[in-house]
């Protein structure tokens, strides 16, 4: 599933340092020549693509990015220090536009790719530079130039790898909020979620995977019931489906079948998509009356999918479920590479 993540930021390269006016004063040199040094260059703003970032979320909180100014020139022809470049890390796949003109400035696809987006200002020349036969003692120097400033729009197409699906109220939004930093609305009524919520879930290795909490599916969705087709279209581009079922339901198997039938009716390979089933809300199930293990076995026989017994609220059973998701994704990635090579 593809989403567009957007951010607007302002970048400002450093101003060049001013050149200065100075003259040599040495004990035995009565009229020293000009010796004012040049200003240093202002730092530039450089974007670099970074593998471990998945979203533009960080740019929501921070809008102005400024590189260091160049230092003033010094006496004895000393050039001022160059301002440090500001390196801004963005996720791979980020496209950068000039927000004022709409012009495409570049896109950063592969990790490590760089784009100089705003040039630092040149340092001003010190008075030693203006020494000539006609003017042995120039009394002037130049100020440093301003650094480039730009208003930028960043865009990133996000690919959600795992889609959390299920009937309304199954606990999908609760699950994504316990797995990631996403904070979607959660409520005890159906159709709380109207558009997909994204969350980045960290693997033990540190890199993130995007999960999408999809609005609840209902019977007839494939024919357009509820928010119907929209939901299924969202699901279409995810690689793994995490099918969440409310274990407190009076008929778990019926609930499972309802969703499966919609996936099948929609077609486009949804039913064959890798699937994991999770029986949720087990903290609220009366264990004496409901045999969760038997339900899990039954679901497994029906679906051939791995079944986990979890609580999105207490986080019981979450870890083994995540491990299985990582395993499936790794396997899909490995197969993809074989396809590319072969
Ligand atoms: N006891 C218990 N309640 C849960 C659990 N997970 C979710 N709930 C509750 O179930 C209700 C529905 O949760 P949501 O996360 O909004 O469900 P949803 O699947 O996103 O619902 P829609 O967006 O309407 O499709 C809320 O009252 C949650 O607090 C759980 O693990 N245990
Ligand atoms: Mg929801």
List keywords for this structure.
single chain, 342 residues, alpha/beta, Spo0b-associated Gtp-binding Protein, Chain: A, Rossmann fold, 2 domains, 6-stranded mixed β-sheet, 5-stranded mixed β-sheet, 25% strand, binds guanosine-5'-triphosphate, binds magnesium ion
Summarize, please:
Helices cover 20% and strands 25% of the residues. By secondary structure, the protein is an alpha/beta fold.
- In total, the number of strands is 14
Our count of domains comes out at 2
Number of H- or I-type helical stretches: 5
> Which molecules are bound in this entry?
guanosine-5'-triphosphate, magnesium ion
CATH superfamily of the largest domain: P-loop containing nucleotide triphosphate hydrolases
Helicity level, as a percent range? 10-25%
Named CATH topology of the largest domain: Rossmann fold
| Strand composition percent | 25-35%
Order of helices and strands: EEEEEEEEEHEEHEHEHEH
CATH architecture of the largest domain: 3-Layer(aba) Sandwich
Identify low-pLDDT runs: none
């Amino acid at each position: 599933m593809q989403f567009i993540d957007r951010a607007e930021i302002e970048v400002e390269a450093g101003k060049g340092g001013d050149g200065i006016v100075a003259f040599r004063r040495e004990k035995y040199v009565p009229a020293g020549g000009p010796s004012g040094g040049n200003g240093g260059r202002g730092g530039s703003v450089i974007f670099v693509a970074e593998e471990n970032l998945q979203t533009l979320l960080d740019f929501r909180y921070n809008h102005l990015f400024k590189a260091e100014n160049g230092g003033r020139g010094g006496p004895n022809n000393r050039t001022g220090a160059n301002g440090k470049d500001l390196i801004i890390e963005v996720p791979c796949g980020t496209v950068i536009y000039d927000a004022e003109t709409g012009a495409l400035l570049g896109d950063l696809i592969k990790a490590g790719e760089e784009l100089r987006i705003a040039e630092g200002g040149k340092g001003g020349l010190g008075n030693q530079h203006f020494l000539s036969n006609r003017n042995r003692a120039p009394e002037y120097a130049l100020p440093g130039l301003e650094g480039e400033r730009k208003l930028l729009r960043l865009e990133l197409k996000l690919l959600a790898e795992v889609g959390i699906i299920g009937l309304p109220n199954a606990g999908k939004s609760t699950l994504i909020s316990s797995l990631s930093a996403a904070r979607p609305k959660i409520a005890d009524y159906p159709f709380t979620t109207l558009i997909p919520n994204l969350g980045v879930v960290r693997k033990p290795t540190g890199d993130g995977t995007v999960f999408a909490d999809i609005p609840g599916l209902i019977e007839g969705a494939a024919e357009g019931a509820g928010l119907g087709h929209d939901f299924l279209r969202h699901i279409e581009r995810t690689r793994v489906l995490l099918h969440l079922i409310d274990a407190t339901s009076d008929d778990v198997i019926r609930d499972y079948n309802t969703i499966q039938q919609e996936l099948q009716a929609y077609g486009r390979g949804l039913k064959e998509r890798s699937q994991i089933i999770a029986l949720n809300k087990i903290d609220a199930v009366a264990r004496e009356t409901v045999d969760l293990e038997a339900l899990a076995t039954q679901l497994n026989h029906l679906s051939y999918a791995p079944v986990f017994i979890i609580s999105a609220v207490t986080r019981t059973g979450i870890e083994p479920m995540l491990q299985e998701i990582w395993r499936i994704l790794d396997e899909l990635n490995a197969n993809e590479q074989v396809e590319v090579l072969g």
